[in-house]
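pasting input
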Amino acid sequence: VLLLLWEYAGRTGERLLIPSFTDTVGALARLTVSGELPLALVVSNQSLVLGFVATLLIGIPLGLLLGRFPLVDRLMSVYLDISLVVPMVALMPIAIVALGIGLLARVVIVMLFALPGLVINVRTGVRGVDPRLPEMARAFGAREWDVWWKVVLPAALPALMAGLRFAASRAVVGMIIVELTLIAVGVGSIIQMGRGQFAADIVFATTLVVAVEGMLIVSLAERLEHVVTPRARRATEPA
Amino acid sequence: LRRTARTALDQALPWLSLAAGLVLWEAVGRSRVFSFVPSLGEVLAAFWSMVQTGKLDALGATLQALAIGYGLSVVLGIATGVAMARSRLIKYVLDPYINAFMTIPSSALIPVYLVLFGLGAETRVMVVFMHAYFVVVVNTIAGAQTTPADLLEMARAFGAGEAALVRKVVVPSALPLVLTGLRLGFGRAVRGIINGETILASVGIGQLLIRYGRTFQMDYLYGVVLTIVLLAVVGTTTIGIIERRTTRWQHA
């Protein structure tokens, strides 16, 4: 229904502002055939993939640490709370002044966006582990490493997976925002170019691709979540 | 006595940690090791001069768009949520769209609003609205669905119509989750307005952010960031307090 309405609005309304659905698909086809869009997607996703991997490598150990040691948690939680409510966009200019406008800056920005949600979820997960389980494992002679690997981590898994999904969607936001504002490369630069030329069909087509990519990534994370933890309750967002 | 001393220490720790962070910041800033870290004193001076010269008046435009957009998403979000929880038809029609917009990164759509609505206030209000609305809707639905069926039945048996039912039974029992939605929504709304203005780069506090970033005026840039941090923290804390006050019976 929405697609029909869109087509109708595009055909009757001001052509300059609202491209019809078919126009948009046309622009999408042109951008794809010329190789412009696929190339831009590759460039954009470099920062997404690297940033997300870095988020996992830092976020999971950090979350475990915070969940395990209350003292570390008390010292860090102020900063964590702040990082969760503050729009990370505000820190982007600082990151760029510090790191330049290369790939590194984009990777770090993706990480800034994705990290807080993951850390908080992992921490919540570890805290929620029934304290009797590690105790019991130790009583049966499990070593510290085994307790972590075989007891705490599996019990914290549902929260961790929800954090992963949340981090993935935030990472996409980070990727696209930095390209739209400060570092004009990849998909963001095509959107900006379209905006500059008042080529609404290009803006719509590229945005559609980004939106679909975002949805795909999130639903992939959701699928993974269901496979790994079939019976857990799902959270929408770290509260 | 030892126990009270311990809890006092526990409560003081976050503040001590924050203070230590600020001292560290000042030290790093003074040492000039990193050109991109001005000292805390310089940042506060820049912040104060922005207040005095009226540079921070840009905040007014930001807050206005934030208030209108957030207000709209609260009112419409709760209404939509209740309607979807009460009527199966409405739920079936709207569900796919709500789900889609919950998963699409809201910020990716900002260029589209720009093309549609131009550089004016409508775009910014729209951006805020689209960031906050869906969380409110989803949480309201979840809340309204938790209304115990026997309460609904009882109210109906005593002759309550749909309007009274919603107002007196559904909304109160949905309140805790609705408030959670409002708090999450506020966080998203603030992110939305800052994202929007940074991409627009021509109004409000986002404009200041971009301008000082491009001209490497680090003390002013940090001053703007500080303003945004304060806005987000104060707003979220306030809503958190309201949440705890109004749903005290739940925590008791």
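fyi The two ends of chain B are 27 Å apart (CA to CA).
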